[in-house]
Amino acid sequence: MGLNKNVKICKVLSDPHRFEIVTMISGTEMCACKLLEHFNITQPTLSHHMKQLTDCGLVNVRKEGKWSYYSLNSIVLNEFKEFIGNLQPKL
């Protein structure tokens, strides 16, 4: 994964709501309706956050009827974790 994609993921995760969403869907798939119940935000605001997360590739979306279900993209997440893990402090 290139530097630009990692920068985009960092920017997306810099928002507290999006960071919490990623934490909530870690290891599971979650309906947008459950995310809305948790946050005190409107549906359009949640849609905006989810678009940011899906556009950077960190989150997958699966549609079933009128519902959207979100889960982490394990491939992108593992590549991002590898990038973060390779960062070294200056000695």
Characterise the protein shown here:
It contains five helices and three strands; from the N terminus they run H-H-E-H-H-E-E-H. The chain has 91 residues and is an alpha+beta fold. It has a single domain (3-81), classed as Winged helix-like DNA-binding domain superfamily/Winged helix DNA-binding domain (Arc Repressor Mutant, subunit A, Orthogonal Bundle), CATH 1.10.10.10. The relative contact order is 0.18.
Distance between the terminal alpha carbons, to the nearest Å?
26 Å
Give the oligomeric state: single chain
- The fourth-level CATH homologous superfamily is Winged helix-like DNA-binding domain superfamily/Winged helix DNA-binding domain
Helical proportion, percent range: 55-70%
How many H/I helical runs?
Answer: 5
Radius of gyration: 14 Å
Structural class: alpha+beta
Cα shape: elongated
Report mean pLDDT, rounded to a whole number. Answer: 95
Main sheet specs:
3 strands, antiparallel
Unreliable spans: none
Number of domains: 1
CATH fold assignment: Arc Repressor Mutant, subunit A
What is the string of helix and strand elements?
HHEHHEEH
Provide the spatial order of strands within the biggest beta sheet: 1-3-2
Level-2 CATH architecture: Orthogonal Bundle
How many strand elements? Answer: 3
CATH class term: Mainly Alpha
Portion of residues in beta strands equals 15-25%
